[in-house]
Amino acid sequence: MRRVVAYDCDVLVIGGGIVGLSTAHAITRAAPGTRVTVLEKEAGPALHQTGRNSGVIHSGVYYRPGSLKARYAVTGAAEMVKFCAEHDIPHEVTGKLIVATGRAELPRLHGLVQRGRENGIPVRELGPTQIAEAEPAVRGIAAIHVGTTGICDYPAVARRLAEDSGAEIRYGAEAVRIDRRPDRGVAVLTATGEVLRGRVLVNCAGLHCDRIARLSGDDPDVRIVPFRGEYYELARPELVRGLVYPVPDPAFPFLGVHLTRGIDGGVHVGPNAVPALAREGYDWRTLHPGELAGTLSWPGSWRIAGRHWRYGGGELHRSLSKKAFTRAVRRLLPSVTADDLIPTAAGVRAQAVLRDGTLVDDFLLREGPRTVHVLNAPSPAATASLPIGREVAGRALRMLTATDD
Predict the structure, then answer these.
(1) Quick check: 1 pLDDT over 60?
(2) SS3 347
(3) What angle do CA 393, 398, 401 make, to 5 degrees?
């Protein structure tokens, strides 16, 4: 005789950031009547990665053609602009400049032109005169203009997704234990002592996604290594009209310091990228010994350090020395001074790292019995959140159908 289980919902989503909320929204749109509950440990939505990024709607120009990042960024950028327009959320399609400041960067800049065209992105090449016309305070020997880049208010997007999702969203509900059984679904115990049962679990826990995967009984063989991105606000925002980026070096894992005019008219400068001492370590004072021990015990962490020690040393120096950070900014914006840079809120990137020290570059989705895990959702995750949400929702719904057979 088959035991009847009383489920609180069909799909339990852990994580109320923009990807988790987009997933809940997509499930109820694709399968009306599906009961979805979102568990978010904070008091409101999108308080970590979503709420602490630069607000850029990324074009997809950097990403390998055919990768999930490239596909989702290109479609996601257009969808995000449309979503913001339909829901009266502040946004603007600004375009951006990627600027070469030295001749050694020119081959990489030309490579971005080709990559952008392969991804179907409008890219225009500029010389020094055209750079000065677009951004009078910026100096470079060549640049490209990427027309589909923009900015928006991602926390407002997340709030709207929450309102329109049709899901039950429980704030202050931290998952501390997960019991998964093939014939009885998934039960989640929260920090308040409440137990919720669902047929399928979706893990969109961001900075804690690997921990949630292990709690559910799945070992994804990746670990989240947190990197803090530190920003400054430009005291003279009139120096920058829009978005200005350096040419990235593929030998290093991050883009480098850039200039971003936000929807509030202010200009963010940064970020650098330094190891965080906690999953939510937004400054050097925040240390969680257990989380730091988890990072240090993962073999991939040491292999990253061995591979990128010179780059990492430079990032640490810029974190500890405002003078060094200012020098990095002056490559693009020569007139900036240390007094122009005002410290502002930092963010932490949930970077998935393989055992061999490889930084997972693309979105990483994995499935287990009755579970779907989003294990790497790096930039441009916010930009691409609508198509990512549909992809994760589709997997959850197929799994839900399979449990009914």
Answers:
(1) no
(2) strand
(3) 125
- State how far the alpha carbon of 258 is from the alpha carbons of 158, 240, 247, 294, in Å: 25, 11, 10, 31
For the chain, counts of helices (H) and of strands (E): 11, 22
Place of tokens 């120009």: 61
Between CA 116 and CA 122 the distance in angstroms is 7
pLDDT digits (tens, 9 = 90+) for 309-339: 787 888 899 999 999 999 999 999 999 999 9
Crossing angle of the two packed helices 154-164 and 68-86, in degrees rounded to 10 = 80
Domain boundaries, the chain: 1-92+150-221+361-405
Residues pairing with 365 in the sheet = 374
CATH of 1-92+150-221+361-405, one of 3.50.50.60, 3.10.290.10, 3.20.20.220, 3.20.20.140: 3.50.50.60
Rounded Cα distance, 5 and 292, in Å: 39
Max CA pair span of the chain: 79
What tens digit of pLDDT does each residue of 17-63 get? 999 999 999 999 999 999 999 999 999 999 999 999 889 999 999 99
> How far apart are the C-alpha atoms of 38 and 153, rounded to whole Å?
22
CA atoms within 13 A on the CB side of 184: 10
User: At 84, is the pLDDT very low, low, confident or very high (cuts 50, 70, 90)?
Assistant: very high
Half-sphere exposure of 284 (CA within 13 A, CB side): 5
Other C-beta atoms closer than 10 Å to the C-beta of 399 total 20
Helix, strand or coil, per DSSP, at residue 327: helix
Taking Cα atoms as reference points, which of 388, 62, 67 lies closest to residue 248? 62
- Return d(Cα 241, Cα 245) in angstroms, integer: 13
Q: Helix, strand, coil % (nearest 5) of the chain?
A: 35, 25, 40
Helices (H), 171-321: 209-215, 289-297, 299-307, 309-320
Q: Which amino acid is at 384?
A: A
